[in-house]
Design goal:
The structure is a homodimer of 160-residue chains. Chain A folds into two domains: 119 residues, Orthogonal Bundle (Arc Repressor Mutant, subunit A), CATH 1.10.10.10; 37 residues. Helix content of chain A is 69%, strand content 8%. The first copy, chain A, has six helices and three strands. Chain A has a three-stranded antiparallel beta sheet with strand order 1-3-2. The mean pLDDT of chain A is 90. The structure holds a DNA duplex (23 and 23 nucleotides).
Chain lengths: 160, 160
DNA sequence: TATTGTTATACTCTATAACTATA
DNA sequence: TATAGTTATAGAGTATAACAATA
């Protein structure tokens, strides 16, 4: 029987190591055409791949403040991967859309990132991979739910 | 049967969400005495809790460059949590040690961090917790091994 | 007046390259 | 000359608070 405390300890211990490992694996990927993207940038482009969003939506979705997202979008726009236009229907809002270049950069980098991590994970045997996948599923579901709750509270004005 | 690619995808998708969730959980912990510490700072103090290290050792252990570590140590020293003295045996090296204040800050913050994450994990049922723990064990072992290899290569001069 | 987004400010984490001090 | 560490420089991610534009 695993108690929550032990699990928390292991998570806190594992998280920074994994983060550095993954960042390093991504950084070492030689992407011929584009500058390397960070994990966060890949994730933002991924979110925008399916549909356009306002800045606020993207910030909530990504789990950061509007201020932070505004800065991150600056970078994506500067690189030419995202376009920023004001919504005619409500000119306070901006519509963020992937450009063609952004779509290409994302496709390429996403693939490279996946390959880098896939290489790592191929070192595991079947049982280990099974365990890892299950654990990640649990974690993913838990935090997604948590984030949705927080976003809901933010809307409902849980401010102190 | 779980293939490595799917596992890599899930890891890439899960990692940023978890990181934000954990950071947020830590940030919301009200620590009465000390300023809140970041995850990385807690980890550094934890490493130094057992024994003193040189800057280079600490950098390798934490998985960053000496430059980065030098900066991180600046902050810890400024806060009064770590002492930096030059090694009499080889004055190029620096001995990093936890101060009493650092020991206290770590104990306190580490506990708060664990509690914050424990609360989160208590939302899982027994089976889910079991799965999460197993998955984290696999991930932890994999990345630890990887990091040890990289550190070994760095020593052996695999630079190019 | 309320909402959306940007900017000013400040901090942490990160790396490469140039540099200092020591061996 | 080689090694340990610091500093100069640069960039990304982060937040709060003050602000501008729009509704």
């Amino acid at each position: 029987m695993v108690n929550a405390r032990d699990c928390a300890r292991l998570l806190l211990e594992t998280l920074p190591i994994v983060r550095r490992g993954v960042r390093e694996a991504m950084r070492l990927q030689k992407v011929p055409v584009h500058e390397p993207l960070t994990m966060d940038q890949v994730r933002l482009l991924k979110i925008l791949r399916h549909e356009s969003h306002s800045l606020g939506e993207l910030a909530t979705r990504h789990g950061v403040t509007a201020s932070t997202m505004s800065r991150s979008v600056d970078i994506l726009v500067r690189r030419g991967w995202v376009s920023r236009t004001s919504d005619p229907a409500d000119r306070r809002q901006v519509i963020l859309q992937l450009t063609d270049g952004g779509r290409g950069a994302h496709a390429e980098m996403d693939q490279h990132a996946e390959e880098a991590i896939t290489l790592l994970i191929e070192e595991l045997d079947d049982l280990e991979r099974e365990k890892l996948f299950s654990g990640l599923e649990v974690l993913h579901a838990l935090l997604e739910r948590k984030q949705a709750e927080d976003a809901g509270l933010a809307l409902a004005g849980g401010g102190s």
